Amino acid sequence: xxxxxxxxxxxxxxxxxxxxxxxxxxxxxxxxxxxxxxxxxxxxxxxxxxxxxxxxxxxxxxxxxxxxxxxxxxxxxxxxxxxxxxxxxxxxxxxxxxxxxxxxxxxxxxxxxxxxxxxxxxxxxxxxxxxxxxxxxxxxxxxxxxxxxxxxxxx
Length: 155
What we know:
By secondary structure, this protein is an alpha+beta fold. It has a single domain, classed as Hotdog Thioesterase (Thiol Ester Dehydrase, Chain A, Roll). It is built from 4 helices and 6 strands, in the order E-E-H-H-H-H-E-E-E-E. Strands 1, 2, 3, 4, 5 and 6 form a 6-stranded antiparallel beta sheet that branches. The longest helix is centred in the middle third of the chain and has 15 residues, at 58-72. The radius of gyration is 18 Å and the shape is elongated. The chain starts with 13 loop residues before the first strand and ends in an 11-residue tail after the last strand.
């Protein structure tokens, strides 16, 4: 795999991410460990809730979508993650929903004080098989630039 640098990124460049599908068992297993709210782990209670069934934890959805985004970054020399953009969750994710992840690079800016580094944001929207948005967010990264001198982290 070839190393890619900040200089190789283009504003609006899209990543082709594989789809995400969370099974009922995966949803219950994740929520049991990390977000044990009853509408994530107990089918009977979830059926009587406002959701009318089990839904995935937002943390599970974000984690699963992060995985496919990172898989598609293919060799980009990310130095560190700087933050997560506001996370919007307008619709619930249900077992076996087919989630499409549309991700793209934006807000590319080379560091003025550290020319061997650049800032980049990966924005993404996740939609289910009905075209409903279930997640919108993004990640801010510090990315190495092509440089003759070693890159140092911004302090």
